[in-house]
Write a structure and sequence with these properties.
308 residues; alpha/beta; Purple Acid Phosphatase, chain A, domain 2; globular
């Protein structure tokens, strides 16, 4: 029986590889793979304190696909470990695949999807008394798209035709409920000024199809995304309604954060939480050209989102 007040722990981009070495992202940002076991344990311990009703991981659980050159045995061990640790939470945990959740050197996401109980290329819909939650699978690439990207992953997101139909049905049948959408790659560019927007790298290539469905029904109040390793928030009009677009911060690099989303019948309250590992946070924050911008604007750290 769902409560009239509902909490969701929201995280992304753990890039778990406890036997790996430190990796570097855009702007020379330091990713803390050798500390990923500590980061994952700290994350789950912090989330558990809030006793959420659900926990969502928005993708890139580990370091497969292209770029990282992770050994295959490490990849499967890491995916299994992350799934096992999330399954120990008192709350039900759901996950979406990210581009790095396919095998090293590229391929499909079948192992990840089987592990998390997903039908290939699709996500899940969860109904609460106050909202409908739609987890949208953005790794619905065709075999041709996957093969064209080898020996890497496609990086960009793609929502399959089947998943687009599922989204349309979820919005069409939501009744009077507001909808919250969750995905890995981004539907729209971020609001912050750091890093140029590169649709082929950060975006969902057929985002226009998703946004057209959202505009048609006008009931999506917020979209929560991962992939870009930054915390970012902006509001924009989709169709005739205002919608909040949130980029969830990464766990593997600064700000080493996650989001707590508390829902009531009238609003959602969003809070940013940074992991209590100050020395690691400082290492990542000071790396490269400086990564302080990844934490976003101070006024984003606690927000209210109207559901009506």
């Amino acid at each position: 029986m769902w409560s009239t007040r509902f909490q969701i722990g929201l995280c992304t981009d753990t890039h778990f590889w406890n036997t790996g070495v430190c990796q570097y992202g855009s702007n020379g940002s330091l990713q803390l793979q050798p500390c990923s076991e500590l980061l994952l344990a700290t994350l789950l311990s912090e989330i558990e304190v809030f006793k959420p009703d659900l926990v969502f991981h928005l993708g890139d659980a580990t370091c497969g696909g292209g770029y990282f050159q992770m050994p295959g045995a490490d990849f499967y061990a890491a995916l299994n470990c992350v799934h096992q640790e999330f399954s120990r939470l008192s709350a039900a945990a759901y996950a979406l695949p990210g581009n790095h959740d396919c095998p090293p050197g590229g391929g499909n996401w079948s192992y990840f999807e089987q592990l998390w109980g997903l039908v290939s290329g699709t996500g899940v819909t969860i109904d609460l008394p106050m909202a409908r939650l739609v987890l949208l699978n953005t790794q619905g690439h065709s075999r041709e798209q996957i093969e064209a990207a080898l020996p890497a992953d496609p990086v960009y997101g793609w929502v399959s035709d089947v998943e687009l139909l599922r989204l349309e049905d979820a919005l069409a049948t939501a009744g009077g409920k507001p909808v919250l959408l969750f995905c890995h790659q981004l539907l729209r560019s971020w609001a912050g000024n750091h890093n140029p927007w590169a649709p082929h790298f950060y975006g969902i290539r057929n985002a226009d199809a998703v946004l057209a469905i959202m505009a048609r029904y006008g009931n999506v109040r917020a979209v929560f995304q991962g992939h870009a390793h930054r915390f970012d928030v902006h509001r924009t009009v989709v169709g005739e309604r205002c919608c909040l677009f949130v980029v969830t911060p990464a766990v593997i690099e600064y700000p080493l954060g996650w989001l707590n989303l508390e829902l009531t019948s009238s609003e959602a309250q969003l809070r940013l939480h940074q992991l209590p590992v100050p020395e690691l946070a400082q290492l990542s924050r000071e790396s490269g050209e400086g990564q302080g911008w990844r934490v976003g604007e101070p006024n984003w750290a606690e927000l209210r989102i109207s559901l009506r």
